[in-house]
Protein backbone atom coordinates (compact mmCIF):
# COMPACT_ATOMS: atom_id res chain seq x y z
CA UNK A 1 0.00 0.00 0.00
CA UNK A 2 1.36 3.38 -1.02
CA UNK A 3 1.76 6.00 1.67
CA UNK A 4 0.72 9.63 1.29
CA UNK A 5 4.37 10.59 0.75
CA UNK A 6 4.72 8.12 -2.13
CA UNK A 7 1.49 9.34 -3.74
CA UNK A 8 2.66 12.97 -3.46
CA UNK A 9 6.07 12.24 -4.98
CA UNK A 10 4.50 10.27 -7.85
CA UNK A 11 1.98 13.04 -8.58
CA UNK A 12 4.72 15.67 -8.43
CA UNK A 13 7.02 13.83 -10.82
CA UNK A 14 4.15 12.98 -13.19
CA UNK A 15 3.35 16.69 -13.43
CA UNK A 16 6.90 17.36 -14.57
CA UNK A 17 7.47 14.49 -16.91
CA UNK A 18 10.56 14.43 -19.07
CA UNK A 19 10.23 16.20 -22.43
CA UNK A 20 11.82 14.24 -25.22
CA UNK A 21 13.70 16.40 -27.70
CA UNK A 22 15.17 15.08 -30.92
CA UNK A 23 18.71 15.79 -32.03
CA UNK A 24 17.34 17.76 -34.97
CA UNK A 25 15.38 20.08 -32.68
CA UNK A 26 18.43 20.69 -30.50
CA UNK A 27 20.64 21.43 -33.53
CA UNK A 28 18.07 23.84 -34.97
CA UNK A 29 17.83 25.73 -31.68
CA UNK A 30 21.61 25.92 -31.34
CA UNK A 31 22.00 27.01 -34.97
CA UNK A 32 19.53 29.88 -34.65
CA UNK A 33 21.02 30.92 -31.31
CA UNK A 34 24.48 31.03 -32.86
CA UNK A 35 23.31 33.09 -35.84
CA UNK A 36 21.50 35.63 -33.67
CA UNK A 37 24.40 35.87 -31.22
CA UNK A 38 26.81 36.54 -34.12
CA UNK A 39 24.41 39.26 -35.22
CA UNK A 40 24.67 40.73 -31.70
CA UNK A 41 28.47 40.46 -32.02
CA UNK A 42 28.51 42.73 -35.09
CA UNK A 43 25.94 45.13 -33.62
CA UNK A 44 28.09 45.56 -30.51
CA UNK A 45 31.18 46.21 -32.65
CA UNK A 46 29.40 48.91 -34.66
CA UNK A 47 27.76 50.56 -31.63
CA UNK A 48 31.04 50.82 -29.71
CA UNK A 49 33.19 52.11 -32.58
CA UNK A 50 33.72 55.47 -30.83
CA UNK A 51 34.19 54.20 -27.29
CA UNK A 52 36.17 51.55 -25.45
CA UNK A 53 35.82 48.22 -27.28
CA UNK A 54 36.56 44.89 -25.63
CA UNK A 55 36.84 41.99 -28.06
CA UNK A 56 36.81 39.47 -25.20
CA UNK A 57 33.53 40.90 -23.89
CA UNK A 58 32.05 40.75 -27.40
CA UNK A 59 33.07 37.10 -27.82
CA UNK A 60 31.60 36.40 -24.38
CA UNK A 61 28.22 37.71 -25.60
CA UNK A 62 28.13 35.02 -28.30
CA UNK A 63 29.19 32.25 -25.93
CA UNK A 64 26.74 33.42 -23.26
CA UNK A 65 23.74 33.18 -25.61
CA UNK A 66 24.71 29.65 -26.71
CA UNK A 67 25.36 28.46 -23.15
CA UNK A 68 22.06 29.95 -21.93
CA UNK A 69 20.17 28.17 -24.72
CA UNK A 70 21.81 24.90 -23.69
CA UNK A 71 20.81 25.46 -20.09
CA UNK A 72 17.18 26.15 -21.04
CA UNK A 73 17.06 23.04 -23.23
CA UNK A 74 18.37 20.96 -20.33
CA UNK A 75 15.88 22.45 -17.88
CA UNK A 76 13.02 21.55 -20.22
CA UNK A 77 14.17 17.93 -20.44
CA UNK A 78 13.92 17.07 -16.72
CA UNK A 79 12.77 18.80 -13.55
CA UNK A 80 15.33 16.88 -11.50
CA UNK A 81 18.20 18.04 -13.70
CA UNK A 82 16.87 21.61 -13.67
CA UNK A 83 16.81 21.72 -9.86
CA UNK A 84 20.37 20.43 -9.72
CA UNK A 85 21.50 22.95 -12.32
CA UNK A 86 19.92 25.85 -10.41
CA UNK A 87 21.81 24.76 -7.32
CA UNK A 88 25.08 24.48 -9.25
CA UNK A 89 24.70 27.88 -10.94
CA UNK A 90 23.84 29.58 -7.63
CA UNK A 91 27.48 29.30 -6.52
CA UNK A 92 28.76 31.26 -9.54
CA UNK A 93 29.93 34.79 -8.75
CA UNK A 94 30.71 37.39 -11.39
CA UNK A 95 33.26 40.04 -10.36
CA UNK A 96 33.77 41.85 -13.68
CA UNK A 97 32.62 45.46 -13.49
CA UNK A 98 30.48 46.84 -16.32
CA UNK A 99 32.29 49.91 -17.69
CA UNK A 100 29.50 51.18 -19.95
CA UNK A 101 25.70 51.02 -19.48
CA UNK A 102 25.41 49.85 -23.11
CA UNK A 103 27.46 46.78 -22.18
CA UNK A 104 24.71 45.87 -19.72
CA UNK A 105 22.11 46.21 -22.48
CA UNK A 106 24.01 43.86 -24.79
CA UNK A 107 24.64 41.43 -21.93
CA UNK A 108 20.92 41.21 -21.13
CA UNK A 109 20.13 41.01 -24.86
CA UNK A 110 22.44 38.02 -25.27
CA UNK A 111 21.02 36.21 -22.24
CA UNK A 112 17.45 36.89 -23.40
CA UNK A 113 18.19 35.46 -26.85
CA UNK A 114 19.56 32.30 -25.24
CA UNK A 115 16.48 31.92 -23.03
CA UNK A 116 13.96 32.59 -25.82
CA UNK A 117 15.68 30.33 -28.37
CA UNK A 118 16.10 27.60 -25.76
CA UNK A 119 12.36 27.76 -25.13
CA UNK A 120 11.76 27.15 -28.84
CA UNK A 121 10.46 30.66 -29.62
CA UNK A 122 13.02 31.57 -32.28
CA UNK A 123 10.62 33.96 -34.08
CA UNK A 124 10.33 36.10 -30.97
CA UNK A 125 14.13 36.19 -30.58
CA UNK A 126 14.58 37.33 -34.19
CA UNK A 127 11.84 39.96 -33.97
CA UNK A 128 13.15 41.24 -30.64
CA UNK A 129 16.69 41.52 -32.02
CA UNK A 130 15.51 43.50 -35.03
CA UNK A 131 13.45 45.87 -32.89
CA UNK A 132 16.30 46.37 -30.39
CA UNK A 133 18.73 47.09 -33.25
CA UNK A 134 16.37 49.62 -34.83
CA UNK A 135 15.77 51.42 -31.52
CA UNK A 136 19.47 51.53 -30.62
CA UNK A 137 20.56 52.95 -33.97
CA UNK A 138 17.76 55.53 -34.07
CA UNK A 139 18.52 56.76 -30.55
CA UNK A 140 22.27 56.72 -31.27
CA UNK A 141 21.75 59.02 -34.29
CA UNK A 142 19.35 61.30 -32.41
CA UNK A 143 21.20 64.31 -31.04
CA UNK A 144 19.58 65.29 -27.76
CA UNK A 145 22.26 67.82 -26.86
CA UNK A 146 25.75 68.71 -28.03
CA UNK A 147 28.69 68.09 -25.75
CA UNK A 148 30.47 71.35 -24.77
CA UNK A 149 34.10 72.14 -25.56
CA UNK A 150 36.86 72.45 -22.99
CA UNK A 151 39.04 75.55 -23.33
CA UNK A 152 42.50 75.44 -21.73
CA UNK A 153 44.48 78.70 -21.55
CA UNK A 154 47.96 79.38 -20.21
CA UNK A 155 48.80 83.04 -19.73
CA UNK A 156 51.05 85.35 -17.78
CA UNK A 157 49.72 86.42 -14.39
CA UNK A 158 49.16 90.05 -15.43
CA UNK A 159 46.52 92.39 -14.08
CA UNK A 160 43.43 92.43 -16.25
CA UNK A 161 44.30 89.32 -18.27
CA UNK A 162 41.25 87.44 -16.94
CA UNK A 163 38.92 90.26 -18.00
CA UNK A 164 40.38 90.32 -21.51
CA UNK A 165 39.97 86.56 -21.89
CA UNK A 166 36.43 86.69 -20.50
CA UNK A 167 35.48 89.47 -22.91
CA UNK A 168 36.64 87.49 -25.96
CA UNK A 169 34.92 84.32 -24.76
CA UNK A 170 31.63 86.17 -24.21
CA UNK A 171 31.79 87.59 -27.75
CA UNK A 172 32.00 84.10 -29.29
CA UNK A 173 30.03 81.96 -26.82
CA UNK A 174 26.48 82.04 -25.51
CA UNK A 175 27.41 79.63 -22.74
CA UNK A 176 30.67 79.49 -20.81
CA UNK A 177 31.60 78.31 -17.33
CA UNK A 178 34.93 78.42 -15.56
CA UNK A 179 35.87 74.96 -14.31
CA UNK A 180 39.23 75.65 -12.70
CA UNK A 181 41.76 78.44 -12.17
CA UNK A 182 45.39 77.91 -11.16
CA UNK A 183 47.40 81.03 -10.34
CA UNK A 184 51.10 81.21 -9.54
CA UNK A 185 53.44 84.17 -9.23
CA UNK A 186 54.07 84.16 -12.98
CA UNK A 187 51.45 81.91 -14.64
CA UNK A 188 47.66 81.69 -14.92
CA UNK A 189 46.01 78.44 -16.07
CA UNK A 190 42.31 78.58 -16.92
CA UNK A 191 40.00 75.69 -17.82
CA UNK A 192 36.56 76.65 -19.15
CA UNK A 193 33.56 74.72 -20.42
CA UNK A 194 31.82 76.45 -23.32
CA UNK A 195 29.72 76.14 -26.46
CA UNK A 196 31.11 77.76 -29.58
CA UNK A 197 30.24 77.63 -33.27
CA UNK A 198 33.57 78.87 -34.63
CA UNK A 199 36.30 77.41 -32.46
CA UNK A 200 39.08 78.38 -34.88
CA UNK A 201 38.17 82.06 -34.72
CA UNK A 202 37.90 81.94 -30.93
CA UNK A 203 41.32 80.37 -30.41
CA UNK A 204 42.89 82.74 -32.93
CA UNK A 205 41.47 85.79 -31.16
CA UNK A 206 42.53 84.53 -27.73
CA UNK A 207 46.08 83.78 -28.87
CA UNK A 208 46.48 87.40 -30.00
CA UNK A 209 45.85 88.73 -26.49
CA UNK A 210 49.06 90.04 -25.01
CA UNK A 211 50.23 87.75 -22.23
CA UNK A 212 48.49 84.59 -23.50
CA UNK A 213 51.08 81.84 -24.02
CA UNK A 214 48.94 78.96 -25.32
CA UNK A 215 45.31 78.16 -26.13
CA UNK A 216 43.81 74.67 -26.53
CA UNK A 217 40.21 73.81 -27.44
CA UNK A 218 39.20 70.21 -26.71
CA UNK A 219 36.07 68.24 -27.56
CA UNK A 220 34.86 65.14 -25.73
CA UNK A 221 32.21 62.42 -25.96
CA UNK A 222 31.44 62.30 -22.25
CA UNK A 223 28.44 63.55 -20.31
CA UNK A 224 26.44 66.36 -21.87
CA UNK A 225 25.65 69.54 -20.01
CA UNK A 226 22.21 70.97 -20.86
H/E element sequence: HHHHHHEHEEHE
Distance between the amino and carboxyl termini: 77 Å
Determine the fraction of residues in helical runs and give it as a percent range.
55-70%
Q: Give a short account of the largest sheet.
A: 4 strands, antiparallel
Estimated radius of gyration: 30 Å
Mean of the pLDDT scores? Answer: 80
Summarize the structure.
This protein has about 230 residues and is α+β, with helices and mostly antiparallel strands. It has 8 helices and 4 strands. Helix 2 packs antiparallel against helix 5, helix 2 runs parallel beside helix 6 and helix 3 packs parallel to helix 5.
What report would you give on this structure?
This protein has 226 residues and is of the alpha+beta class. The chain folds into 2 domains: 4-141, no CATH class; 149-218, ACT domain (Alpha-Beta Plaits, 2-Layer Sandwich). The protein has 8 helices and 4 strands, in the order H-H-H-H-H-H-E-H-E-E-H-E. It has helices at residues 4-15, 23-47, 55-77, 79-89, 101-118, 122-141, 161-172, 199-207, and strands at 149-156, 173-183, 187-196, 212-218.
Which terms would index this structure?
4-stranded antiparallel beta sheet; 4 strands; alpha+beta; 8 helices; 2 domains; elongated; 16% strand; 226 residues; Alpha-Beta Plaits
Topology:
Blueprint: H1 4-15, H2 23-47, H3 55-77, H4 79-89, H5 101-118, H6 122-141, E1 149-156, H7 161-172, E2 173-183, E3 187-196, H8 199-207, E4 212-218
Helix pairs in contact: 2-3, 2-5, 2-6, 3-4, 3-5, 5-6, 7-8
